[in-house]
Amino acid sequence: MKSVFATAQEKTMQLFYAVFFAVFAWLLINVVFFNIHFSYKPATVVLLAAVWLLFFYLLWRFCVAAGPWLQKKAKNERVALLLFFALLCCVQLFFFTQVASHPARDLNYVYTSAYNYTIAGIIENPYLDYLYKYPNNMPLTALLQFLFRAFYRLTGSVNFWAVGVLFNVFCIDLGYIFSYLSAKKMWGKEAGFFILFLLLFNLPLQFYITVFYTDTAVIFCAPALFYTFLCLGNSGRAKNTAMLLTAAGLLAGFGMQLKYSVVIGVIAFCIALLLKKPGLAAVATAAFLAGFVLWGAVFNSFTYTHVLNKEIAADEATPYLAWVMMGLGGDGAHNPTDNYIVWNWQTEEERVAFVKEEITRRLDGYGVWGYMCFLRQKGIRSFGSGNAEVASYVGEYPVRQTALADAVYYANGENGNWLDYLMQGYHIAVFCLVAAGAVLALKQKNYIMLLPYIAIFGLYLFLLLWEAGQRYLLQYTAFYLLAAVYCARHLFKYCYKKLNLKAKSPEKTNI
Predict the structure, then answer these.
(1) Ramachandran assignment for 404, one of left (phi > 0), alpha (psi -120 to 50 degrees), beta (any other)
(2) Which residue of 227, 383, 389, 493 sits 20 to 30 Å from the alpha carbon of 483, by its own alpha carbon?
């Protein structure tokens, strides 16, 4: 008989999958048919999503057909991986020549700060003022200046933009590798290559090739966490488990310092582990905290020794509650006006007090029902488009004025833009697979898939609380696609069997 604890675990897991499906199926319907934030025509989006699903099926069949060859020799897998990454390199070079962009918005401040510190050993206003206001961008600035300085000393060149792009490509491609390893460990080499192709056709990911900001710098963290989670089940000896958790703690701690929303994946990791191995979950939590504190000490040592004054920084920094306040105004997305209002106050205490009062005032203005309706719209605003806000970052300062760069710049769902519709079709196709996968996980009582599903649900809750925006979805691309692969394999196998049975069944004849 099952223990009471095991039964409670199973019921909790099943309840979560049921809630996930209910929330995301409802969200999917709203995104497709009641999307007032992005001007997509529902019929066109549904048609394109169906085309993408058919294309995913053909990709899956291709990977399945290659399965026996991949399994035959270990060398075959290495050759296939080499060919894929050669293809990926060509694709990335193509997008680099067509849609490369100079640093814009926050990236411009971070990049220029790192550039100036490398060349002059000092950061001046307005860039220094920006870092005082947004110290959360200081770790990335510190990391970039370290890379720039190493490159400058080795070559004497100041082409730091190229260094940033190469760093970005490294982080993105590392995400490919961990995604492949995770899918391969779960479902075999065919699934590994299937997710590689799904990543390849994720256009926003390719468009962000020159945007070496926090979203892409930590894109490998999610699949790396999942791969660690899978390895823990087979680690066996305590020594191997300790090594895995140490590595995961250092990696996730580094990621959390670059972008705090990595903590969503970390929390999902600990919750999923808690439902299976409570004792190990406590050790993992300690490892993540230690990694975060360790990297925090490293970055803070550089920051407050060489760049910022700690006392001034305490008063100048924008309180994190300001983003919660921002998320309660307008459509819940980024609103620079709110920042200017907050900066009118001189000290940290005054800013926090004002923000708390403003949050209370805005909530009172909505009322309970009004706030529920607002959250519905905010969820649509966050998940309503598959373009990951590429126009804001890629189209603003293009390196070359190509036809594709122009198409990216106008990727906002308006005027029937073909490229944006293509990305939206992909987004909805994956969205459908993720939602349907929750039903499959519920039926199969699948424990392993808890990690990506909890993280996706956590991201949804985070965006309801924080500022809305599709850019935040970028760092969890691997989790979406792992969930999609999980569902697609079962769905496509079922379809293939049905099609085969129909093809082989004898035709009816009249006697």
Answers:
(1) alpha
(2) 389
- Contact at 8 Å (CB) between 399 and 100? yes
For 276, the token pair is 């299976």
Distance between CA atoms of 138 and 378, rounded to whole angstroms?
29
Chain-centre distance for alpha carbon 232: 23
Q: What is the pLDDT of residue 331?
A: 85
Give CA separation, 254 vs 204, 223, 240, 299, 380, in Å: 24, 15, 21, 10, 31
**CB atoms inside a 10 Å sphere around CB 427:** 28
* 393 backbone dihedrals φ, ψ, rounded to 5°: -105, -35
Neighbours of 491 (CB within 10 A): 20
Residue 415: its pLDDT value, please?
Answer: 41
d(Cα 188, Cα 181) in Å, to the nearest integer?
9
How do residues 398-425 score in pLDDT, each as one tens digit?
888 888 888 887 755 444 488 889 999 9
Residue 150 is predicted with a pLDDT of 93
Q: Measuring CA to CA, how many Å separate 320 from each of 339, 352, 465, 481?
A: 11, 9, 12, 30
Pick the closest to residue 233 from 265, 271, 187, 280 (CA basis). 280
Helix 42-72 × helix 418-444 angle, to 10°: 60
366: CB partners within 8 A, 6+ apart: 328, 374
Q: How many residues comprise the chain?
A: 511
**Residues whose CB is less than 8 angstroms from the CB of residue 488 and which lie 6 or more positions away in sequence, other chains included:** 56, 57, 60, 194, 433
CA distance linking residue 256 with residue 139, whole number of Å: 10
Asked if the bond preceding 452 is cis, omega within 30° of 0, the reply is no
Q: Which residue has the higher pLDDT, 174 or 417?
A: 174
SS3 at position 379: helix
Interatomic CA distance for residues 220 and 167, integer angstroms: 12
What is the mean predicted confidence (pLDDT) over 19-47?
93
pTM attached to this predicted model: 0.91
Instruction: Say how far apart CA 130 and CA 336 lie, in whole Å.
Output: 13
- DSSP code per residue over 200-261: HT-HHHHHGGG--SHHHHTTTHHHHHHHHHHHHTT--SHHHHHHHHHHHHHHHHHHHHH-GG
Which tokens go with 300?
């803070």
E strand segments, 179-255: none
> What's the token pair of residue 114?
């790192």
More confident residue, 409 or 91: 91
* Residues with Cβ within 8 Å of residue 412, at least 6 apart in sequence: 38, 39, 387, 391, 420
